[in-house]
Design goal:
The longest helix has 17 residues. By secondary structure, the protein is an alpha/beta fold. Helix 1 runs parallel beside helix 3. It contains five helices and seven strands, in the order E-H-E-E-E-H-H-E-H-E-E-H. The strands form three sheets. It has a three-stranded parallel β-sheet with strand order 1-2-5, sandwiched between helices. It is 30% helix and 15% strand. The chain has one domain. The two termini are 30 Å apart. A hairpin with a 6-residue loop joins strand 6 and strand 7.
């Protein structure tokens, strides 16, 4: 079992689509409450941001159906400071990190749960998705190895460094 001095990287967003956001927000609230009630017994929590999918439709969301899919850019541009900016009018939710991450940021505000920077680090990597193993082409929701998952490890490290409870020196 994990100790209070350990660090757990967690996320359950992927299995809660964009349909009923109220249910997802309630689950996040329940998670925060459970973590806060058991804080002395649980490891430190790092929330793994939901990473962007790049399906060729608005906001890159999964369209349903079977591969092959076409992966496409999300109409944002990564800036030198790590932020992203929209390149068209309907990309604002992408700039905010998608519906899942926006809800998580709101739920975790004022808590010791920190979030990774995975969304922004991955938002432009539309051509880094893996092929389906049976040869049907791209699957725009999972990433190739090596690639994005290694970038995520770096951002997990940065999140731990910035955490108010970080056991690591800040510089």
């Amino acid at each position: 079992m994990a100790l209070p001095s350990d660090i757990a990287i967690v996320n359950f967003a992927h299995w809660h689509g964009t349909g009923d956001r109220a249910e997802y927000k309630k689950l996040l609230g329940d998670f925060v409450e459970a973590v806060e009630q058991r804080a002395e017994k649980l490891p430190r929590m790092v929330w793994k941001e939901m990473v962007p999918t790049h399906y060729d439709q608005q906001h890159g969301l999964y369209p349903g159906g079977e591969p092959p899919f076409t992966c496409a850019p999300l109409h944002v541009k990564l800036q030198g400071d790590g932020n992203i900016e929209a390149t068209d009018d309907w990309s604002e939710i992408v700039v905010e990190g998608g519906h899942h991450n926006k809800a998580a940021r709101e739920a975790f505000a004022g808590t010791d749960i920190v979030m990774t920077g995975y969304w922004n680090a991955t938002v432009e990597l539309f051509d880094y998705h893996r092929d389906v193993s049976d040869g049907r082409g791209h699957e725009c929701g999972h990433y190739c190895f090596p690639g994005a998952p290694q970038v995520w490890l770096y951002h997990a490290y940065l999140s731990i460094l910035k955490a108010p409870w970080s056991p690591l020196p800040a510089n």
